[in-house]
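User: quick one, fold this
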Amino acid sequence: MATSKLQRRTAASGRNPKSAKRGFIVKNVVLHFYKLKIKLEQLQRECQNLRVTRNDYFTLLNRIQIPKEVKVEKIGQEFVVKVSCCNKGGDKLVSVLSAFDELGLDVVRASVSCGHLFSMEAIAVAQGQQTSGVRDITHAVVKAIDEKQGGDG
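Assistant:
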């Protein structure tokens, strides 16, 4: 019964059922492509907005001054050294480790993060009979960081 209605409609419009079906399929395909094109344009706009937001974030992060913080604590024979500061210029990790070496400290364990911010937590012990005080270690680490930042902060 449905086919006879379709036949009557197509006969009235001067088409045969096969061409009517093809026309319907073509319209659906074109509509589907149009919807995909709109979705793609929307995703491209969202991606561009995320890029702009990311760039704004990094620009802001580079402008703010993160205060440097150096904390040294002696626990038994070990020194726990915590450092955090902005990561502008230089290789702070190498500078801090060189300062440890100059003080006669061996790093037993360390955790480091070097992105836009530099942070490090290290456990160090004195080599042999050499002993450094908390104040000496703090001063040496601050000096190492300042030299790598060009003296600012």
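User: anything notable?
Assistant: Residues 17-63 form the longest helix (47 residues).
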